[in-house]
Design brief:
By secondary structure, this protein is mostly helical. It has one domain. It has six helices and two strands, in the order ααββαααα. Strands 1-2 form a two-stranded antiparallel ribbon. A hairpin with a 2-residue loop joins strand 1 and strand 2.
């Protein structure tokens, strides 16, 4: 009985661990976003699932830095081509973070705010940004 309880506890801890793909950094996020508006994953994990209440502080900071770094790159590209692929990808990233806020009791709120600042360079009403954001909110 004790062994079964220990095994169950170990599985529970494994389930709460941050998936390794989520910790691959900015370049992995940028590479994964190339398939947007199709579902974007980091080694099989949707972007929104990388952010959860079970993510420890250091990992959350690492994921946040990767997302903000990716958003900065995409924001620069979006400023040059407001209806380009980078704008769609930036919208997807923001949508995925917004999705994480709903499921993780606001753990992604500050991150979302910082990403919104990067997206401020996108002209209001950009069709590419809107398409990406909707896709990210739906399945990101």
């Amino acid at each position: 009985m004790l062994i079964a309880c220990l095994a169950l506890a170990a599985c529970s801890q494994e389930d709460e661990a941050t998936p390794s793909g989520c910790l691959e950094g900015r370049d992995a996020v940028l590479e994964a976003l190339k398939v947007a508006p199709d579902p974007v994953t980091l080694e099989g994990t949707p972007l929104s699932e990388c952010l959860s209440d079970t993510t420890d502080g250091g990992e959350l900071q690492e994921i946040g830095a990767a997302y903000v770094g990716a958003a900065a790159v995409l924001g620069d590209r979006s400023a040059e081509q407001p209806d380009g692929t980078a704008t769609l990808q930036l919208g997807y990233l923001l949508g995925a973070v917004k999705r994480s806020e709903a499921g993780a009791q606001g753990v992604g709120y500050e991150l979302g705010r910082r990403l919104e600042a990067e997206a401020a360079r996108v002209p209001p009403g950009s069709a590419a940004f809107t398409l990406g954001r909707r896709a990210g909110e739906k399945g990101g």
